[in-house]
C-alpha cells in the first residue's frame, strides 16, 4: 500500500511531510478495530438467526443441551462458568476454541431470542467447556443451555497489542529502523550494490526467478519486524 505525502513550501523550498504520523495512525486504527469486532459479532448473530440449530450444531458453531456445573469468580471480577453435556460424558464435536466469543442462551430458545450473556471461552476439555463472562446471568442457569460461537478474540487482541507497541515506540531491534521509514519520518537507505545470490537450479525461467526474489524480500521484511508481525498474515498464506 502506498503512503501519500504532502508537499509544502517553506522559504521557497519544498518539504515533504508524511500524510499521517504514527500517533495519528494509532488513534485512528484503535476505534476502527473495535468497530470491526462489533460488526463481525453482529454479522455472526444475524447469520445465526437465519439457520436452524441442527445446522449450527453440525457445523460446530453451537453446542446444545448443556448444564452449568460450576460458577466461580475470576480475575477483574469476571464470572467463570463451566458447562457439561446433559446427555453424554463427552462434549459433541464442535469448532469452539479458547478466546472464541460466545453467547449463552436457553437450549430451547428461539434463534432470534436475546442471550443470557456473552463471554469468551476460557478453557476447553473433552468433557466440559469453561466460559468467562463479564456479568453473571441473573437467571436460567438451572435449565438446559446452549452456547453459540460468535467470533474469535485472538486476531483483535493481536492487533491491539501491536498498536500498543507502536504507541510506545519501537526502541530496540531491526524494527526500530523500519517503522520510521514506513511512516515517512525517515528516508529509506538504499544499498549501492545489488544483492547477489546463486540459484541451486540454473534452469529456472525468468518468472520463477522473479517470484523467488520477491519471496526473499518478503522473508527479509518479516524477520526485521518480529515484534509487529503478529498482525500480518502468516507465511503459510503467502
Automatic annotation (TrEMBL):
Residues covered by the Helicase SMUBP-2/HCS1 1B domain: 32-138
Record-linked Pfam families: SMUBP-2_HCS1_1B
Entry GO MF terms: RNA binding
Name this polypeptide is given: Helicase SMUBP-2/HCS1 1B domain-containing protein
Source organism (scientific name): Cuscuta campestris
Amino acid at each position: 500500500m502506498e503512503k501519500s505525502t504532502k508537499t509544502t513550501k517553506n522559504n521557497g523550498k519544498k518539504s515533504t511531510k508524511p500524510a499521517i504520523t504514527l500517533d495519528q495512525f494509532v488513534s485512528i486504527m484503535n476505534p476502527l478495530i473495535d468497530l470491526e469486532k462489533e460488526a463481525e459479532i453482529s454479522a455472526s448473530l444475524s447469520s445465526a438467526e437465519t439457520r436452524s440449530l441442527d445446522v449450527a450444531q453440525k457445523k460446530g458453531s453451537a453446542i446444545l443441551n448443556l448444564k452449568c456445573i460450576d460458577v466461580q469468580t475470576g480475575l477483574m471480577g469476571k464470572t467463570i462458568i463451566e458447562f457439561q453435556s446433559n446427555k453424554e460424558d463427552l462434549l459433541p464435536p464442535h469448532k469452539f476454541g479458547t478466546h472464541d466469543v460466545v453467547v449463552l442462551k436457553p437450549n430451547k430458545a428461539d434463534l432470534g431470542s436475546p442471550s443470557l450473556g456473552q463471554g469468551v471461552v476460557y478453557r476447553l476439555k473433552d468433557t466440559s467447556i469453561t466460559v468467562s463472562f463479564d456479568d453473571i446471568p441473573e437467571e436460567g442457569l438451572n435449565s438446559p443451555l446452549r452456547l453459540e460461537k460468535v467470533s474469535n478474540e485472538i486476531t483483535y487482541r493481536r492487533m491491539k497489542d501491536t498498536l500498543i507497541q507502536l504507541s510506545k515506540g519501537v526502541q530496540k531491534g531491526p524494527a526500530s529502523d523500519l517503522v520510521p521509514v514506513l511512516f515517512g519520518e525517515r528516508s529509506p537507505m538504499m544499498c549501492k550494490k545489488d544483492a547477489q545470490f546463486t540459484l541451486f537450479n540454473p534452469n529456472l525461467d525468468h518468472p520463477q526467478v522473479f517470484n523467488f526474489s520477491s519471496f526473499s524480500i518478503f522473508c527479509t521484511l518479516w524477520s526485521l519486524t518480529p515484534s509487529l508481525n503478529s498482525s500480518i498474515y502468516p507465511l503459510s498464506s503467502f
